[in-house]
């Protein structure tokens, strides 16, 4: 069965390498979007009457996190149902490529859900700062905390979305090894050349 397992292992290796790179050397888009959020909060803090606008923008971002968390939860429940409906004796199941890819998908979905919740938590805290009256002493006091929350919220949300995207090649590789491996390579190229790049207008 080793010749059937290595496509799954290689796909997982590509995902691990990508996330290690993203964690230690964030993509240009990640850095630029982080600066965009910080500049946004500074701009709001210098413009009276924008408190409602700030809270509404935070609410939109919070809804995006909620949608991602909901999608991962439904996918997780479906994966668990498939896992237990086709359960085999442990000795045979441990060497099944489909089962290995399914377990990997469960891990990715679980991590995506966790990071979505962490992102929602940070957006929630940032909303309190964005809603404080402009020019108030309390807003100036909590502004650095708001910056930190925005930075973490964006970072966690980016991770949750990318984790969810990597489930696609793992689903395919569990069914069709070579097609799934090609899908993983294509996804890696699209992430590095598309999603991770910052396109200056």
UniProtKB/TrEMBL annotation:
This protein's UniProt keywords = Membrane, Transmembrane, Transmembrane helix
Keyword Repeat attributed:
no
Positions of transmembrane segments: 6-24, 67-87, 99-118, 163-191
- Could you identify this protein by its name? DUF599 domain-containing protein
Give the source species: Lampropedia aestuarii
